[in-house]
Write a structure and sequence with these properties.
The structure is a homodimer.
Chain A: H1 8-11, H2 16-19, H3 21-24, E1 30-31, H4 44-63, H5 72-86, E2 95-99, H6 100-112, E3 118-123, H7 127-134, E4 139-146, E5 149-150, H8 152-161, E6 166-169, H9 183-194, E7 199-203, H10 219-222, E8 227-232, E9 243-247, H11 250-264, H12 269-281, H13 284-309, E10 315-316, E11 324-328, H14 335-344, E12 347-348, E13 350-351, E14 364-368, H15 374-392
Parallel strand pairs in A: 1-12, 3-4, 3-6, 6-7, 7-8
Antiparallel strand pairs in A: 2-9, 4-5, 8-9, 10-11, 11-14, 13-14
Chain lengths: 393, 393
């Protein structure tokens, strides 16, 4: 029988990666399309020991219902780490634990967006955020991302025309572009937003995965009352436990709490306890250093292979962190077309169009380097080079 | 600074239990307000062994990102159990794993409701559903619940006036009333809905917690293409792992999948694996039998204490399952006022008003019996009897 679905379902984009899953799952395909961390870097034994400890010493409470805001020792750990790493004063009560940071985006949409509200995102922007916000039917506006962050002139101009509920951005090692905002850009964005009612939503999934240079201040430093930060253990500990968090001014967190409770009561208690125990018993900095060392080597290898295999008029970002490279072909080339040729060569990526709400981005593509071995990078980039030469030649 | 929140936040009711948490957390208070299963019945050791097995044998995949629909062996177990228990033919692809069944309600709201759409719920209705659906700003309509289910005359009449997207109900041991729909009511509801575009959302959180008599057919039996079922391991295994599921016709599940991905990508992988391993290695039926035996005894004890302590003109349901009794005081008595007196006696419950969207229910209250020891039931009902006598005398 025909079903009637809510109108929001018609405007919510599907996952590109899901659409090509049947193809990329073939064992002969090398996929740079996903956004997975390398499972060989998971601290499996340490997390097993943490799970064992929790089940032995706090089994009943780990298995019972709990509070919506999440486990206090975990929120305290996160608050302390903000203090240490970024000199941010965050109270544990200004933090709420979520099912991965993707859920933060859903809760932000729920709490802040009425249908038709203007929202600002980067161009290119994170597909998951576009999906999450789309469910609340906003009017998307975009700001171009350069090598050191958003175009602030465009930002001021778009904001003047479309007073947005918030500007959503990924200042550290952005997905998909790999761009990190310079400190000057951060200050300039804060100056522009300060005079408006627009909040800044800082998605910081990759801030701790920094290969070069040192961490730059959070926008919260410059805009304390107007910055919502979303964080995640997915890239630094494990994504399978779906542990993220949102940090925001108390008044916003209270609304997020109401929305979270209505959405799923609270996050997995056992997982919160396991992560907490793991963090108490292990050296997270040392673990992150291992991940960073490995990902830096993969980035460098992929860049050097691209230098050898791709035509010279192709540009590529050199991200200071994260998991992605952003490759731009010469004008007139379509990565949507390229993908078909690439799949014939058994290699996959995500075409740039998936990261644009306005149909742009067709000359660009996103390549993931975190979940590919050395051999896969060498072979995969070689195959992709062949596909590009077939496209342009 | 003043923040601007989405209008949906103004109409979403807060959790009553959260509001009185500070009071009920005092150690001297006996609380019948919550809806917690008894933690002494959790299979802690068996779940610990399951966690240990999963981390030892499938650590990397349990910690990695996974599919939105959830772990296939778990969906297969659920499908097989529908076949066994209720003779329902459900394909694993018609099941999607959620963060507890509360998330099913959020996803159903997302996928089916535009603002202003009419929605039908029971009177009294489950507060968590009212909260979840409120975020999608529907127009609530209600149908009175009698001792054997909804008033079908009222159902037909309300539906005629307000063609609703769906009718949400809890046919087995309803929360808050404890009522189980008779088979005749189930057939009558199906007959009424068959001629409309209204779906039936069957919340079956308590179906396996049946103390008396045998399971009645799901509405799916009578309305196969129009019934969405939500299920949960919270009451039969553990709520802390937040494991629920939604079962619906394929076309609806596809939309739910898009909404789930945008909302939080997928459910906790480790938890899905732990539950699956637990179910493979243990006798769920025997475990449920233990829970049922214990809860039946608690129900009977609470009913007998009520018989001794409460004035004779007070009525109380005798639920065939679940976790709650529904007590109705004589006309003119207010359980909102009673709660103040009860808290002075150090005993708590949820006043009936929390379960009404129209301000009704003030003579009723919900009492939870699953999470109270014998001693707490005896003492708590005695205290509540005193408070009632102070109110009516």
């Amino acid at each position: 029988m025909p079903y009637h679905f809510a109108s929001r379902m018609q405007t919510t984009p599907r996952s590109f990666i899901r659409d090509i899953l049947k193809t990329t799952e073939r064992p002969e395909v090398i996929s740079f399309a996903g956004g997975l961390p390398s499972p060989s870097l998971f601290a499996v034994e340490e997390l097993r020991a943490a799970a064992e400890y929790v089940m032995k010493h706090a089994g009943e409470s780990a298995l019972q219902y709990s509070t919506t805001e999440g486990y206090l020792p975990l929120r305290t750990f996160i608050a302390d780490r903000y203090k240490e790493r970024l000199s941010l004063s965050v109270d544990p009560d200004e933090i709420l634990i979520t099912n991965g940071s993707q859920q933060c985006l859903d809760l932000i949409g729920k709490v802040l967006l009425d249908a038709g509200d203007p929202v600002l995102i980067e161009r290119p922007g994170y597909l998951g955020a576009i999906q999450a916000f789309s469910l609340y039917e906003p009017e998307f506006h975009t700001v171009a991302l350069g090598n050191d962050g958003p175009d602030t002139e465009e930002l001021a101009s778009v904001l003047g025309k479309h007073p947005s509920r918030f500007f959503y951005g990924v200042p550290n090692a952005q997905n998909p572009s790999g761009v990190t905002y310079s400190d000057a850009k951060r200050r300039a964005i804060a100056d522009i937003l300060a005079g408006t009612e627009t909040l800044f939503v800082e998605d910081d999934a990759y801030g701790e995965l920094r290969f070069d240079g040192k961490s730059l201040p959070s926008l919260r430093t410059y805009l304390p009352e107007k910055t919502i930060i979303t964080g995640s253990f997915s890239k630094i500990v494990t994504p399978g436990l779906r542990m993220g968090w949102i940090s925001a001014p108390r008044e916003i967190i209270e609304q997020v709490n109401v929305a979270k409770q209505a959405s799923d009561l609270h996050s997995n208690v056992l997982a919160q306890r396991i992560i907490t125990r793991y963090l108490e018993e292990n050296d997270l900095d040392a673990h992150i250093e291992r991940i960073v060392g490995e990902y830096r080597a993969r980035r460098d290898l992929m860049l050097s292979c691209i230098g050898e295999s791709f035509p010279a008029d192709i540009s590529v970002t050199k991200p200071e962190g994260g998991m992605f490279l952003w490759v731009t072909l010469p004008d007139g080339c379509s990565t949507t077309t390229l993908l078909e040729l690439a799949l014939c060569e058994n290699v996959a990526f995500v075409p740039g169009r998936a990261f644009y709400v306005d149909g742009g981005g067709d000359t660009a593509m996103r390549l993931n380097f975190s979940n590919a071995s050395e051999a896969m990078i060498v072979e995969g980039i070689d195959r992709l080079g062949k596909a590009i030469r077939r496209l342009v030649g």
